[in-house]
Amino acid sequence: MDEPTREELDEWDRRIVWHPFTQMAEYEPLILQRAEGCTVVDVDGNRYLDGTSSLWCNVHGHCHPRLDAAAKEQLDRVAHVTALGCSNPTTIRLAKRLVDIAPEGLSHVFFSDDGATSVEVALKMAFQYWRQCDRPRPEKTRYIALADAYHGDTLGSVSVSGVARFHAMFEPLLFATDRLACPNPYHPPSGVAEADLLEHAVGELEAVLADHHERIAAMVIEPLVQAAAGMIVHPPGYLKAVRELTRKYDVFLIADEVAVGMGRTGKMFACQHEGVAPDFLCLAKGLTGGYLPMAATLTTDRVWQAFLGNYAESKSFFHGHTYGGNPLAAAVALATLEVFEEEQTLKNMQPKIARLAEHLDRIKTMPHVGHVRQCGLLAGIELVRDTSTKEPYPWQEKRGIRVCNHARTEGVLLRPLGNVVVIIPPPAISLEELDRICQAVENGIRAAVA
Fold first, then answer.
1. Residue 450's pLDDT is what?
2. Whole-angstrom Cα distance, residue 394 to residue 337?
3. Around Cβ 252, how many Cβ atoms within 10 Å?
4. This prediction's pTM
């Protein structure tokens, strides 16, 4: 087949490729064909700083020599073997490494292929556990989740998600969830002061658990930050209180660290900020440094033991993915973890986290910036029509998109969440590159709200 022209690529991309979360009637192609470090390059040679880590998954930069070498070395062995009744040394080594660095008690690893599936695995494991543990409790069929949560796009993960704009269409297909208000400091419940938000949110959770724990299988939470909700940072202490209450009422805690794990918050796992060990830990995105699809659901020996028995008992976990535990992805994931140590990624993030905070302190004083929030190298800037009343802009006005469109003219690639401008650069970003990203955001805000 002849090499397509630029015009053909554009036309095929508009007409044939169906892009996720994209209105194809309005889509204008942006075709990226190579990358290096924290920069991506389009087919015309235009260079852009990767301000969203290629949808929050790139960690050590593009074309990192250690990660490239790991993939090439594994290709010389085997690219894929099934995990159904088989294994391979690379995947085994990765599982052991994850258990070694995970919060205490997470001693078993189930591999799948993306964030939604890692959550789906946890939901189904929790459900099946209560039917075949030593003291079965089949009435435990429900889940607790937070409003505005986002846990993926499979039907199970959508059921525990709460972003109406994305998921309301599929309501008839979903199972019911006990939904609690998001503990959002900028938009606390009516009559609740920000200083009282933690106590209020914890009290709401305990009330639900006290009344209904006998029918609740698990609670699902994005630790510290609800990412797709607009980078909502929970009040300090909330995660720890959730862990204490779920343990008190014998309800599993599923920590969805797909977005916040792998160093994004300044620690390897967000749970570590409050000394929390969940019953299930869901990982994806940065697990392979943004190179290949891979997800992992870590769980405890308590859960593992409930699935053991002879063949006739039919206690196996009846769930699996063709590419679960793929050795090529596992090789890159191992290299990603090694680079964390070799390059002291977490330690070297600290000056970058501080620099980002300096920029946000300046940006938060701008007109129509209602609120800024940050946790590590995750940040959200919420634009509002009126800062005194917190009146939002109608999402149809595309204020966040306007900011990102302007940033692109300055060589910075961003993607908003409605009226929230999101900054999530790779942890490998340099201070100078971070300055450029934040300056482009600041200029974009001026243009978008003028």
1. 87
2. 42
3. 27
4. 0.97
